[in-house]
């Protein structure tokens, strides 16, 4: 299911900036040439924004909320542009509406999300800023050229998370299990799951069917250096790995007996460059490690206890 915050129909609220329907926010920014194709969303006679683009825009705003400690709500994409095209990785530049729930006002934001590999969940948000503000530019080129480690970090090389050796939903020493209210309050958890599917299933031109997904459990790796604990750290720009166990009832994606799945998502925030990244994969829940007691028979059951001899 696509979260309500990703609906193509936004609420009727007062704008803090001029209406941009039928106009281009992106072309006036100097980022693209005027020959670049701009797609305007939602405003008649234009079509609704694709689910994938809405999710990318929501990811950008989520990164802003983490960094700034805000709780702005994603409303809709106004327009977007993309480089290249399928089946190649693209970079999306988007203008979006974000709602301040406290003031019931809408602000326009600009964000840019790059796919590192087409058909994989490997995304980097290059920047997100309120419309009209000057973007701080970090010259990553020289650093990437001179440092192999910086290049690997920037390109997310070797960052794909894998299943840990112990069950993340049972190992309370290394993982924090979110309760139901925490999952509901942090809508971006569902966004991580939706992104994992939307970015991965790109074989057809149809929008991914996210309505068949239902979250069952969510665990997150514990950062022992975080003095405030794992709970408060969820909404700050901390690096973490999330394990989202869910049911996928889509017959087109999974086999009949393999509906119990787990999305593993690594969140990376680079304070030096300002880039916010998400990388991950979806696996069968059968890959979750079994308890050691289930795999290794107990000493008592594996050995024959000799009977006492009669005197």
Number of domains: 1
Provide the spatial order of strands within the biggest beta sheet: 1-2-3-4-5-10-9-8-7-6
What class, by secondary structure content? Answer: alpha+beta
- Strand tally is 10
Walk me through this protein's architecture.
A 10-stranded antiparallel sheet has the order 1-2-3-4-5-10-9-8-7-6, covered by helices on one side. The chain has 311 residues and is of the alpha+beta class. It has helices at 51-68, 140-146, 148-154, 180-185, 188-200, 230-233, 292-295, 299-302, and strands at residues 39-40, 73-82, 91-100, 105-115, 121-130, 175-177, 213-221, 240-248, 260-269, 276-284. Helix 1 (51-68) crosses helix 5 and helix 2 (140-146) packs across helix 3 (148-154). The protein has one domain. It is 20% helix and 27% strand. It is globular, with a radius of gyration of 23 Å.
Key words describing this protein structure:
single chain; 311 residues; alpha+beta; ten-stranded antiparallel sheet; 27% strand; globular
